[in-house]
Amino acid sequence: MNIFRFAGDMTHLCSIIVLLLKIQATKSCAGLSLRTQELYAIVFVSRYLDLFFTFISMYNVIMKLIFISSSFCIIWYMRCHRIVAQTYDREQDTFRVAFLVVPCFMLSLMINHEFSFTEVLWTFSIYLEAVAILPQLVLLQRTFNIDTLTSNYIFLLGAYRALYMLNWIYRYFTERDYSQWIVWTSGTLQTATYCDFFYYYILSWRKNERLSLPS
Amino acid sequence: GPAASSHDEL
């Protein structure tokens, strides 16, 4: 494991933990898309089903379990927590996730490395992760609300994307037979959708800044 | 290929 990969995993983990702590501290999930968080949970569950079939390392097992449980923890807060659930923008967060889930699943049936149960689910999770931020992007475009989406979370999520791309480049040049077109293509698309999200986040941030200026 | 079947990244 190279330093880019490890740093990428850590920033990804930190982004989720930061979000969770922020929800806990402020007792609010305003501005956060439950649909995006649920898509991430689907991504983690379908990708990490291989926990039952293949063992790679103790590091991988622990990280996978943390990713799955923390994503469900965020969903629990948004859906079930007495106070936090009341701050959820239910009426605004209406993106039809089926429009993402179904095409991604179809695509994973057609384009994969191997037509098997775990392999198709793994491929599905890669495709879905690339577009999972879209409901969040739409919610942000509608509300300009950046309450719970702190700049820390946004920064860490972006750093995770950048570091993983560096990791692929590093592995491509240092390992024999390392090439994974599915991951690279969807990873690049994912980074592009993230950049779009980032752009709107900055826009909303500046708009909020203007609103809160003393007159 | 070997990279396809062993998904060692998270």
Automatic annotation (TrEMBL), chain A:
Acetylation recorded as keyword: no
Keywords, sorted A to Z: Endoplasmic reticulum, ER-Golgi transport, Membrane, Protein transport, Receptor, Transmembrane, Transmembrane helix, Transport
Residue intervals passing through the bilayer: 49-77, 97-115, 121-140, 152-170, 182-202
UniProt-recorded Gene Ontology molecular function terms: ER retention sequence binding
Keyword Membrane: yes
A single BP term in Gene Ontology: protein retention in ER lumen
Subcellular localization(s) per the UniProt record: Endoplasmic reticulum membrane
Family that this chain belongs to: Belongs to the ERD2 family.
Name assigned to this protein: ER lumen protein-retaining receptor
Species the sequence originates in: Ostreococcus tauri
